[in-house]
Design brief:
Length: 388
């Protein structure tokens, strides 16, 4: 049985008629830049996320870059980021010649450890970028409290967490000062190429973001500030508008898949429960834990952009699954502090043991909404066979 890590063709075939029509409508209008498709999409996200301002942008990476430009990050400013995330989280900081200051993650949630965050604050720190990694919220109450005490801007990297709720029910990306989302095809809500979204509840920041999204000209061709071309194409906005109404049902199916995986791994004796952080005879597979799963009425406690297991012989398991036609991926094999391009930060192996442990042992297995139960049973069976 073939089980790819991600299969976008099934989703497309189900929505083909609507998607094709939406694309043709944009083609017929010949309105490709800004315009009504984008404006409508932005309004729909303001309603969906319950935030004051949402702007479509060219990618999740550009959302982060624009956020840092909006708060006027300068060379030598420090921006705190987790060492274990997708490259863009730290890359955007370095691109502005500011210093990414790295922080350890939590062994259960893979998200920024608030205590380590606070310990890394200096007089140069301007902002922090908590990442809602794999689709689960970071500890926002603690992060916001620390940020307030030290007068820091909080930019949420919600690239993997569209629709994720924090324990109080708010959507991530609307809790900090600025939220950044990605519509990269492998995210839960993907467009037909690159795309992203930036959100804020702050009117002043919104105005700066709006202007810096189009080179910083206000009015056009008159520049008090420098921005970039960070616009989302009307074609991508049209695709997203067709898909957004389906997002919740896809998320529900991802949660169902994750719960089925958890149940099967436990039934087969490969794990005792979710959220374990150490291997032993009864926990050969460490399962991801949705820490707010039992909060009353909280629907999207985790949106499972990725379902991440950790195993000791990760590379061997990955090869074994490939042989059995099961797609997997390693998110992420090298934390920032061990990346060559960040050698100048002066870190060494052992500086962030929890992140290194995750980098060495984590494996994403298929979780996309269109997976069948049969495929999930098959994946767990093959993993069981690997351990026999
Ligand atoms: C995908 C992702 C990004 C970047 O988004 P793109 O749209 O690919 O530029 C940033 N941060 C995280 C955590 C991501 O997963």
């Amino acid at each position: 049985m073939k089980v790819p890590l991600l299969d976008l063709t099934t989703q497309y075939s189900k929505l083909k008629k609507e998607l094709d029509e939406a694309i043709i409508k944009v083609a017929e209008s010949q309105q490709f830049i800004l315009g009504s498709e984008l404006a409508k999409m932005e309004e729909e996200f303001e309603t969906y996320l319950n935030c004051k301002h949402a702007y479509g942008v060219s990618s999740g990476t550009d959302a982060l870059l624009l956020a840092l430009m909006a708060i006027d990050i300068q060379p030598d400013d420090e921006v705190i980021v987790p060492t274990y995330s997708f490259f863009a989280t730290a890359g955007v900081v370095a691109r502005l010649n500011a210093k990414p200051v790295l922080v350890e993650n939590d062994p259960v949630t893979f998200n920024i450890d608030p205590k380590d965050f606070e310990s890394k604050i200096t007089s140069k720190t301007k902002a922090v970028i908590p990442v809602h990694l794999f689709g689960q919220s970071a500890e926002m109450d603690e992060i916001m409290k620390i940020a307030e005490r030290h007068n820091l801007i909080v930019i949420e990297d919600a690239a993997q967490a569209i629709g994720t709720q924090y324990k109080d029910g708010r959507f991530v990306g609307t809790i900090g000062h600025i939220g950044c989302f990605s519509f990269f095809p492998s995210k839960n809500l993907g467009c037909f190429g690159d795309g992203g979204l930036i959100t804020t509840n702050d009117d002043k920041l919104a105005e700066i973001i709006r202007i810096k999204r189009v080179h910083g000209g206000e009015p056009k061709y008159y520049h008090k500030v420098i921005g970039g071309n960070f616009r989302l194409d009307a074609l991508q906005a049209a695709v997203i508008r067709v898909k957004l109404p389906h997002l919740q049902s896809w998320t529900d199916k991802r949660k169902y898949n994750a719960n089925l995986y958890n149940k099967l791994f436990i039934e087969k004796g490969l794990a005792e429960e979710t959220g374990k952080t150490q291997f032993d005879e009864k926990n050969k597979v460490l399962l991801p834990k949705a820490v707010y799963e039992n909060v009353d009425g909280l629907k999207n406690y985790h949106i499972y952009n990725q379902y991440i297991i950790r195993v000791e012989k990760r590379d061997e398991l990955k090869a074994f699954l490939t042989q059995n036609e099961i797609g997997t991926e390693i998110y992420y094999p090298v934390p920032f502090h061990l990346q060559e391009c960040f050698a100048y930060l002066g870190h060494k192996k052992g500086d962030f043991p929890i992140s290194e442990f995750s980098a060495d042992t984590s494996l994403a297995i298929p979780i996309y909404p269109e997976l069948t139960d049969e495929q999930i049973y098959y994946v767990v069976e093959i993993i069981e066979r690997f351990f026999k």
